[in-house]
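Re: that backbone. C-alpha cells:
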C-alpha cells in the first residue's frame, strides 16, 4: 500500500484568516484552495448564511473539497476570478485569500516533475495539466536568451547565463526529457555548498514560467478591487520577492507598478489601504512544525472605495 502523504500544511493560518475579519454571513474566496486548510478555517468561522468559493486550477485538489453546502469548488485559475464569480451569480465578496505557495503534493508526487529529488521523472511542472506548455517544452525550445531571463528573473541566479548555455549545449546532443537529464546538465555549475538552494531556484524559475505565474497574479490582483465590497479584505501570502513586491505595490497604490494616483489637489487615491506597513511572517514555532513556511510573507489590505 502506498504511503499516504500530506497534501499541504497551510502557512500563517491563524494570521491570514484573522486578517480577513470573517463575517458570519459573508461571501469569501480562497483563490488557491489546494489542500483546503485555509478554507476549512474560513468555513469554521462562517454562519449558516455564509458562502465560500475555493479556486484551484489543478483538478487533484478536487479530492480535498469540503462537503458543506456553503462551499463551492471552482476548477479554474484565479486569473479568471471575476468571470467565475459572475457565473455563480456573485458580484461582490467580503474577503479574498490567496496563498501563492506550491502544495506539498506537487513536490512530493514524483510524476508531476516539480522536484529535483526525483531524477527520472518527466519534466512537467504544470499546475493545470490541460495546458500545452510544460517544463520539457521550455527547456528544449526556449532560446538561451529567454532561459537566461527566466533563471535571472524568477530564480535570482547570478550565473543564469552559464546555466542557460549549459542547457543549450546539452539539448543539442540529446533532448532533455527528465528531471535527471536537467540535473546532469546544470549540476556542474551548481555550488556544492549550496546545491539544494540553487537547484531549487532553477526548478522554481521553470515552474513560474510554465504556469505563467507572474502574469496570472497581476490579472488576479487587478480583479480583486473590482469584486471586493468596500470594507472587504484582501490577504495574500507570497514566497518570492517578485510576488511580494507586486502585492506590496498593489495594496499601496492599486496597481503592481506602485504608481499612486492623485487628484487635482494632490490628494492620493488608492482603492486599498494596507492594514500594516510591516509584513507578517511565521514565528519560530510554526517554522519548526512546517519548515516550508520559512519564506512565507503575509500582507493584508482593506477596500476603501467603491471603485
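Recovered sequence:
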Amino acid at each position: 500500500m502506498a504511503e499516504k502523504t500530506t497534501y499541504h500544511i497551510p502557512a500563517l493560518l491563524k494570521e491570514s484568516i484573522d486578517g480577513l475579519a470573517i463575517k458570519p454571513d459573508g461571501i469569501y474566496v480562497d483563490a488557491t484552495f489546494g489542500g483546503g486548510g485555509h478554507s476549512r478555517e474560513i468555513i469554521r468561522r462562517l454562519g449558516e448564511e455564509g458562502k465560500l468559493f475555493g479556486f484551484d486550477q489543478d483538478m487533484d485538489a478536487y479530492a480535498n473539497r469540503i462537503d458543506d453546502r456553503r462551499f463551492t469548488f471552482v476548477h479554474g485559475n484565479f486569473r479568471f476570478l471575476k468571470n467565475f464569480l459572475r457565473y455563480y451569480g456573485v458580484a461582490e465578496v467580503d474577503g479574498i485569500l490567496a496563498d501563492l505557495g506550491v502544495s506539498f503534493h506537487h513536490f512530493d508526487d514524483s510524476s508531476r516533475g516539480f522536484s529535483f529529488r526525483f531524477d527520472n521523472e518527466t519534466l512537467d511542472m504544470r499546475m493545470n495539466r490541460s495546458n500545452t506548455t510544460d517544463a520539457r517544452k521550455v527547456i528544449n525550445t526556449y532560446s538561451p536568451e529567454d532561459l537566461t531571463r527566466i533563471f535571472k528573473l524568477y530564480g535570482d541566479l547570478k550565473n543564469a547565463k552559464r546555466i542557460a548555455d549549459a542547457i543549450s549545449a546539452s539539448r543539442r546532443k540529446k533532448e532533455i526529457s527528465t528531471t535527471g537529464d536537467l540535473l546532469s546538465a546544470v549540476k556542474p555549475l551548481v555550488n556544492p555548498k549550496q546545491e539544494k538552494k540553487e537547484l531549487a531556484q532553477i526548478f522554481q524559475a521553470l515552474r513560474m514560467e510554465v504556469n505563467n505565474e507572474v502574469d496570472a497574479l497581476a490579472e488576479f490582483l487587478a480583479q480583486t478591487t473590482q469584486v471586493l465590497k468596500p470594507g472587504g479584505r484582501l490577504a495574500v501570502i507570497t514566497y518570492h520577492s517578485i510576488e511580494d513586491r507586486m502585492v506590496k505595490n498593489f495594496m499601496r497604490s492599486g496597481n503592481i507598478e506602485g504608481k499612486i494616483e492623485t487628484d487635482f489637489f494632490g490628494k492620493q487615491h488608492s482603492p486599498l489601504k494596507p492594514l500594516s506597513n510591516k509584513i507578517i511572517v511565521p514565528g519560530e514555532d510554526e517554522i519548526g512544525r512546517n519548515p516550508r513556511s520559512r519564506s512565507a510573507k503575509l500582507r493584508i489590505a482593506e477596500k476603501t472605495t467603491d471603485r
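The chain is about 40% helix and 15% strand. The chain has two domains: 13-104+213-303, 132-210.
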